[in-house]
Amino acid sequence: GEGPCSPCPPNSRTTSGAAMVCTCRNGFFRADTDPADSACTSIPSAPRNVISNVNETSLGLEWSEPQDT
N or C end: fewer C-beta atoms under 10 angstroms in the chain? Predict the structure, then answer.
């Protein structure tokens, strides 16, 4: 196409030079509504420090955010 080439966004790749679209690496994804030049992301890691509180009628859960969001 016209203009200079750009590197693929994070966590994506292409198998040929001058490709129009970079596909996500294994384990990474792009939403259908994300532009083709946006970075690919993965699911977050597990929540940390999970605490459960149980009483007679309910269960409450608290946790710290994942290490990798």
Answer: N
